[in-house]
Design a protein that fits this description.
The complex is a heterodimer of chains A (154) and B (731).
Chain A lengths: L1 E7 L2 E7 L5 H8 L18 E4 L2 E4 L12 E3 L11 H9 L8 H14 L5 H8 L9 H16 L1
Helix pairs in contact in A: 2-5, 3-5
Chain B lengths: L1 E4 L4 H21 L19 E5 L2 E4 L4 E5 L8 H13 L6 E5 L17 H28 L6 E4 L2 E4 L5 E3 H8 L7 E4 L17 H6 L14 E6 L6 E6 L1 H5 L4 E8 L15 E7 L2 H9 L3 E5 L6 H14 L1 E8 L2 H7 L2 E9 L11 E6 L4 E5 L4 H12 L6 E5 L13 H13 L3 E4 L2 H6 L6 E10 L5 E11 L16 E8 L14 H18 L4 H14 L10 H14 L10 E9 L2 E12 L2 E12 L6 H20 L5 E2 L2 E2 L18 E6 L14 H16 L17
Parallel strand pairs in B: 4-5, 10-20, 18-19, 22-23, 26-29
Antiparallel strand pairs in B: 1-9, 2-3, 3-4, 6-7, 7-8, 10-13, 11-14, 12-13, 15-23, 16-21, 17-18, 17-20, 21-22, 24-25, 25-26, 27-28
Helix pairs in contact in B: 2-3, 3-4, 10-11, 13-17, 14-15, 16-17
The chains are: A alpha+beta (154), B alpha+beta (731).
Protein name (chain B): Isoquinoline 1-oxidoreductase beta subunit
GO molecular function (chain B): isoquinoline 1-oxidoreductase activity
Enzyme class (chain B): oxidoreductase
Chain lengths: 154, 731
């Protein structure tokens, strides 16, 4: 066990855990931030996607010991009031069915749009291919990403 | 207006009101830690006082209305559509409504389960009645207050007005008086033409919570002082656990206990299907430490029945098709004799592998078992069955057990089975405290309860004029055969034979979204495509010809479908997709299927890019009667199409030594963004028939529309799922 100082959603947090513990479980079990979801544990489904700095990463494969002083953003911290353009587009398109994968989809999409504010359909598919939606809301996810992009560019 | 007798009495309302208060408390406190719910998207202020109108409805002094949604929410969006029906009859603005998940209350709510696409279909009348009863009680309260007749008042949009125009009062203002009103014995339901909410599109009531990551799911549930637990089941079907390195595991960091649980249920019911009765359970404080402890398990397993592999499964099915036990059959005319006379015969065999449900939220459940009570919280499609099984396991009366439902991260039939809730209860009993059981993805995918593997042979005979004179199907499954003897084309062919054949396996299976239909549609509808081609007929015209026969001069005593409605969706999709139009490089397939009381026809366009098929567009025509929440209904059909394409194309479990080689998403392929259709359009047949379900019917025809479009694109027929790895077998 070791102490780690983390900056999560702009707040300083301290946890005493096994250094190998993935951020996914630090967030869920220790910081009680359960918006980040467990789906596969092997970086294949994308449900656990968070931002490390500006990049989307799979928190199930990110040991707490590798975070150091980098900013962590989870779905809970993406915006103050659920008003990030990607969140708003998701609500506008009413994307979700069960909803379980959508935090990961939103975190991946928001990091992607930051780097590529005006993506083509093919670029969206490529960027989002690591995020499984078992309910099959892919066409709506794509629509929402395009709406978020156009609202940002407006 | 339709008059309807209310089916409940004062006592049942009072009973449910008490339970519903609990539900309210749960909704606002257990996931959000007692903080006020900041994400209410309502147009009215949060009330100081709430009044129970009936078990479905509470009205606050500000006019805010809480509607309790009785059924489990697995993504089929009933948590929005069921309350819409109540709100319609109550006649309250949707903006005033907040929705809470009701707990299990078998004494009051009916059919509290999510399965068979039945939620809306079975609760349509009960939900309308609940809303209409509320409206009537508010009207009576206002009439009493003003000393006038109810008939001189009108209730609309949350306000009661005197027809004379003199006085008006809002639901919020009169709610306290409605509490004392006797439950009416009979209430008026609205005329369909007066619907204001039903048939419109309302957004998912949990939408904001989903996009902001609020705790909603079973896996997110937290209770102060609770432990976490994981299980380890045997490494193969046909094995059981004898012993394990208990002391070593108990001494690992973060582990507080480890033991074997026995979850055997006396006289198990249909929902008690499970891979294994005896499991190793590890209890501790953090998920990561439990995962490490799981890896350190050294167990002694015992083989109790022969481990199977995929080759054995194919052999069993082939043998069953020749000499297996026929469970159910239908015969019209004499198919064998007609085949002998036929000018052309087409015979093809289709198969599909075992597949897993793979809900993205793995199995989990919270249980707190004390000497006299059991509290269960989590994702279940069948709370009543869970309650029953836990009652048997603990030998505890039903009334001492409560079940609360979380939002559910995917169902697809997987959570009809209750074993993980039962296991949580067994662990809680053993440790004497609250615990949340969590499956890893690997536990989830290797536990079983799979979609059975199937194999069917279809045969058709055409006369010299290309009329279908004989049709037969023989289908075997491990364990249940994929044949519905009275479904299409029964009723349309003079000489018809259908045989449903069972076979045995020690792999556990269960209902998987659109059970059996998820295979029969793909097989039958791509077979008919081939038959139509052999007959030189357009595939839609060919089917319509058969439906005409079923309409005008049906064969046999009965068939399960209404031919007019079946033909109706084909005609609608034909029109919407502009069937018959050809575009260079675009390859089209069509299929239609009836299951779960709804009719769906789909046209699929495929284009080839670098030798790979891309689904460019899908048109869906749906007849599910009255559509409650239009955009939500479209969403679930779109999901069914994607699910059908994905599983027909990519997914399978392959067995070696009694276990599936695929236990996570690195080997088990699920459809992804780049493989999904570029566009899906959904159209509904407009009619006034009571609504039927949509959770399942969108999926089955997608498999055949895909196979038929692939044939047009590549010249290859597909007989064996998953198509992406299909071996070239003789069909």
């Amino acid at each position: 066990m070791a102490n780690f100082n983390l900056k999560v959603n702009g707040k300083n947090e301290q946890v005493d855990v096994d250094p190998a513990t993935p951020m996914l479980w630090v967030l869920r079990d220790h910081l009680k931030l359960v918006g980040t979801k467990y789906g596969c544990g092997i970086a294949q489904c994308g449900a656990c996607t968070i931002h490390l700095g500006d990049n989307a990463v799979r928190s199930c494969q990110l040991p707490v010991s590798a975070v150091n002083d980098q900013d962590i953003t989870t779905i809970e911290g993406l915006s103050e009031n659920g008003d990030h353009p990607v969140q708003k587009a998701w609500m506008e398109v009413d994307v979700y069915q069960c909803g379980y994968c959508q935090a990961g989809q939103i975190m991946n999409a928001s990091a992607f749009l930051k780097n590529n504010p005006n993506p083509t359909d093919e670029e969206i598919e490529g960027a989002m291919n690591g995020n499984i939606c078992r309910c099959g809301t892919y066409t709506r996810i794509k629509k929402a990403i395009k709406e978020a992009a156009s609202s940002e560019n407006a | 207006m339709t008059k309807i007798k209310t089916q409940y009495n004062r006592r049942s309302f009072i009973k449910v009101s008490a339970a519903a208060s609990g539900g309210m408390l749960i909704g606002f406190s257990w996931l959000n830690g007692c903080k006020p719910n900041t994400s209410l998207d309502t147009g009215v202020a949060i009330p100081k006082e709430w009044f129970d109108i009936n078990g479905y409805i509470k009205i606050g002094d500000t006019g805010m209305v809480t509607i309790f949604s009785p059924n489990p929410e697995i993504g089929q969006n009933v948590k929005t559509s069921m309350p819409m029906i109540v709100a319609e009859e109550l006649d309250v603005p949707w903006e005033n409504v907040v929705v809470e998940q009701a707990p299990l209350n078998t004494g009051f709510y009916q059919n509290q389960f999510a399965g068979g696409s039945l939620s809306i279909r079975l609760s349509w009348n009960a939900l309308r009645m609940a809303g209409a009863t509320g409206r009537r009680m508010l009207l009576e309260a206002a009439a009493k207050e003003w000393g006038v007749e109810v008939s001189s008042l009108t209730a609309s949009e949350g306000v009661i007005k005197e027809n004379s125009g003199e006085r008006s009062v809002s639901y919020g203002e009169i709610a306290s008086k409605a509490v004392g009103i006797e439950i009416p014995e009979e209430v008026d339901l609205k005329d369909l033409k007066d619907f204001k909410l039903i048939g419109t599109s309302k957004k998912n009531v949990d939408g904001r919570k989903i996009v902001t990551g609020e705790p909603l799911y079973g896996l997110d549930f937290h209770r102060e002082g609770m432990k976490l637990a994981m299980i380890q089941h045997p490494p193969a079907f046909g094995m059981t656990v004898k012993d394990f390195n208990k002391e070593e595991i108990k001494n690992m960091p973060g582990v507080t206990d480890a033991f074997i649980i026995d979850t055997t249920i006396d006289e198990p019911g249909w929902f008690d299907e499970k891979g294994f009765n005896h499991l190793i359970a590890i209890v501790g404080d953090s998920t990561w430490e439990l995962m490490q402890a799981k890896k350190a398990i050294k167990a002694e397993w015992e083989t109790v029945s022969e481990p199977e592999n995929s080759d054995i499964h194919i052999e069993k099915l082939e043998k069953a098709l020749v000499s297996g036990e026929v469970e159910e059959s239908r015969k019209d005319g004499n198919a064998d004799a007609a085949f002998k006379k036929a000018a052309k015969i087409i015979e093809r065999t289709y198969s599909a592998p075992f597949i897993a449900h793979n809900t993205l939220e793995p199995m989990n459940f919270f249980a707190n078992v004390t000497e006299n009570s059991a509290e269960l919280v989590g994702p279940t499609q069948t709370p009543e069955s869970l309650e029953g099984s836990v009652s048997k396991l603990l030998n505890m009366p039903l009334e001492n057990i409560t079940v609360d439902m979380t939002r559910i991260g995917g169902g697809f039939g997987r959570r009809l089975y209750v074993h993980f809730g039962v296991e949580a209860a067994a662990i809680s009993k053993k440790i004497g405290g609250p615990v949340k059981l969590i499956y890893t993805r690997e536990d989830d995918m290797s536990q079983g309860t799979y979609r059975p593997t199937y194999r069917s042979t279809y045969k058709a005979g055409l006369d010299e004029n290309n009329n279908l004179i004989a049709f037969s199907v023989k289908g075997a499954g491990l364990p249940e055969g994929p044949v519905f003897p009275n479904r299409f084309p029964a009723g349309t062919v003079e000489n018809y034979s259908a045989e449903k054949i069972k076979a045995e396996t020690n792999v556990t299976t269960g209902a998987w979204r659109a059970p059996r239909s998820n295979f029969t549609a793909g097989a039958e509808q791509s077979f008919l495509d081939e038959v139509a081609e052999a007959a030189g007929k357009d595939p839609i015209d060919f089917r319509l010809e058969l439906f005409n026969r079923a309409i005008n001069d049906p064969i046999g005593e009965k068939h399960d479908y209404e031919a007019e409605r079946y033909a109706g969706v084909l005609k609608l999709v034909k029109e919407k997709a502009n069937w018959g139009e050809t575009k260079p490089g675009v390859h089209r397939g069509v299929a239609a299927y009836f299951c779960h009381a709804s009719y769906v026809a789909e046209v699929m366009d495929i284009i080839m890019e670098n030798g790979q098929p891309i689904v460019d567009k899908v048109w869906c025509a749906v007849d599910c009667g009255i559509v409650v929440n239009k955009d939500g209904a479209k969403n679930i059909i779109e999901g069914g199409v994607v699910d059908g394409i994905g599983h027909a194309m990519y997914s399978q479990l392959t067995f070696e030594n009694g276990t599936a080689k695929e236990s996570n998403f690195d080997k088990y392929q699920l459809i992804r963004h780049s493989q999904a259709p570029k566009k899906i359009e959904v159209f509904f047949v407009e009619n006034e028939i009571d609504p039927t379900g949509l959770g399942e019917p969108g999926l089955p025809p997608a498999m055949a529309a895909l196979a038929n479009a692939l044939y047009k694109a590549t010249g290859q027929r597909h007989y064996h799922q998953p198509f992406s790895t299909e071996r070239k077998l003789v069909g």
